[in-house]
């Protein structure tokens, strides 16, 4: 297979425009929050976001794609447009470029929570690069990277606690629960590395907690800030979770077969690390000879020549086909959940474009 199914030009352009507008709207709020951190924590945070060099001088780095903030804003807009322009329940109805400005602080809070997990994940996984530069822990040391991550989680909740929006309290409670779920997912992921056998159901539950939970929370916060009722909020949360699991499945495929020029990681990076990703676990639990071959390779250190053999074993055991089919199924479920909250899917074009963007990437 050469590439995944291509995003249509209009979908790709809409997603790119949404991400750009979200970044422009949220970055000032993020900068204000991070500027309030004391001393070295501020320097670590600004470096991690790509806005400063290690010595504190200004940098023009990337703060990431802003997928999660864009989901917050797109969800708020979808609920508003689905009601024919809104009914005033969202408390602040200003917009810019079609984005609901009242939800910007919630979007920034979600981005802070996401980056708290990135700082910690880089330490746990011993990753040395992120967004094309050295990871914060390799520059500032483990303690300062971990402590700054902790501070970012607190900042996220402070943003919501200080927000006068009527949905802020419910949003803070929801984000707090989400962070706990994220930590549980990360803990399960680490535990899997020490186990010889992991079931596919366990792996799916871990991925839902580690990846789907925050995408679901982002969509739910957008719904809350649009004045949605409980059923609509839960439907948007379910949409984000299903799309998040589809995202993780595609990400796991890229971790095995992705082009290093697109992924920024070595070919077969997840195999080199003997990561129990979803395609790998599907292969290991397939009951096939290829699955047993993969288990043997995973039992010891992965030498260079073992990586293509392991990738071939995953494919022959059905792990690749299963992951692709399951990603498509999860996206179908995501759209069903979205239609519960926004029956006229034409009003949810932004959410659908973002979901397509994160789940249909080139290899």
Q: Explain this structure to me?
A:
The protein is an all-alpha fold. The relative contact order is 0.13. Helix 13 packs antiparallel against helix 14 (306-316). The protein has 16 helices and four strands. The longest helix has 28 residues, at 230-257. It is globular, with a radius of gyration of 20 Å. It is 69% helix and 2% strand. The strands form two sheets. Strands 1-2 form a two-stranded antiparallel ribbon. Strands 3-4 form a two-stranded antiparallel ribbon.
**Strand order across the largest sheet:** 1-2
The secondary structure category is mainly alpha
Largest sheet: 2 strands, antiparallel
Detail the poorly predicted runs: 1-8, 86-93
Distance between the termini: 9 Å
Task: Give me the strand/helix succession.
Answer: HHHEEHEEHHHHHHHHHHHH
Strand share of the residues? under 5%
Q: Could you tell me the number of beta strands?
A: 4
Give the CA-based shape. globular
Topology:
Layout: H1 9-35, H2 39-48, H3 67-82, E1 95-96, E2 99-100, H4 104-125, E3 129-130, E4 133-134, H5 136-140, H6 142-161, H7 168-193, H8 200-225, H9 230-257, H10 260-263, H11 269-272, H12 278-284, H13 289-298, H14 306-316, H15 319-341, H16 349-359
Antiparallel strand pairs: 1-2, 3-4
Helix pairs in contact: 1-3, 1-4, 1-16, 2-6, 3-4, 3-8, 3-16, 4-6, 4-7, 4-8, 6-7, 7-8, 8-9, 9-15, 12-14, 12-15, 13-14
Briefly say what this structure is.
By secondary structure, this protein is mainly α.
What labels describe this entry?
two-stranded antiparallel ribbon; globular; mainly alpha; 363 residues
């Amino acid at each position: 297979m050469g590439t995944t199914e291509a995003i249509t030009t209009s979908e790709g352009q809409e997603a790119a425009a949404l991400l750009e507008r979200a970044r422009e709207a949220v970055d000032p709020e993020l900068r204000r929050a991070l500027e309030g951190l004391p001393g070295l924590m501020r320097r670590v945070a600004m470096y991690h976001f790509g806005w400063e060099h290690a010595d504190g001088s200004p940098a023009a780095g990337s703060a990431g794609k802003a997928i999660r903030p864009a989901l917050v804003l797109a969800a708020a807009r979808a609920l508003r447009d689905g009601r024919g322009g809104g009914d005033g329940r969202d408390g602040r109805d200003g917009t810019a470029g079609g984005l609901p400005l009242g939800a910007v602080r919630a979007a920034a809070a979600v981005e802070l929570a996401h980056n708290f997990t990135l700082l910690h994940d880089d330490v746990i996984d011993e990753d040395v690069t992120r967004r094309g530069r050295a990871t914060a822990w390799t520059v500032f040391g483990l303690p300062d990277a971990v402590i700054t991550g902790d501070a970012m989680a607190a900042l996220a909740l402070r943003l919501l606690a200080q927000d006068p929006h009527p949905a802020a309290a419910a949003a803070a409670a929801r984000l707090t629960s989400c962070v706990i779920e994220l930590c549980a997912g990360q803990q399960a992921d680490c535990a899997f590395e020490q186990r010889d056998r992991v079931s596919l159901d366990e792996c799916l539950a871990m991925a839902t907690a580690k990846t789907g939970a925050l995408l679901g929370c982002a969509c739910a916060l957008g719904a809350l800030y649009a004045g949605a009722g409980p059923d609509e909020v839960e439907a948007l949360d379910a949409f984000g979770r299903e799309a998040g699991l589809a995202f993780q499945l595609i990400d796991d495929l890229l971790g095995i077969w992705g082009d290093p020029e697109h992924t920024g990681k070595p070919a077969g990076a997840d195999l080199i690390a003997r990561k129990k990703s979803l395609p790998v676990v599907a292969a290991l639990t397939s009951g096939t000879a290829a699955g047993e071959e993969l288990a043997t390779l995973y039992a010891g250190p992965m030498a260079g020549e073992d990586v293509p053999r392991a990738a071939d074993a995953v494919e022959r055991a059905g792990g690749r086909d299963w992951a692709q089919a399951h990603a498509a199924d999860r996206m179908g479920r995501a759209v069903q959940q979205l239609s519960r909250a926004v029956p006229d899917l034409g009003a949810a074009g932004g959410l659908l474009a973002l979901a397509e963007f994160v789940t249909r990437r080139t290899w």
